[in-house]
Amino acid sequence: MPHIFYEYLITFGWAITGAVSMALALGLAVSIFTWITPINEWDEIRKGNMAMAIVLASAIIAFALVIANVAV
Length: 72
What we know:
- The protein has three helices and no strands.
- The protein has helices at residues 2-36, 41-46, 50-71.
- The protein is elongated, with a radius of gyration of 17 Å.
């Protein structure tokens, strides 16, 4: 039984490591995206610009897919 618990602990540790690294990489990618675009996406979203929200959401999903495929 202790061997299985040890394996679960290792798996949980790698899951936490993956989640933290994914969050950091995604945050970095989104900050670079907002830096290279000519408008301020967050101000536009606060104003209620739904098109900008869709563009930013699709960029986040695209970055997440790329990061996930690189990790595999």
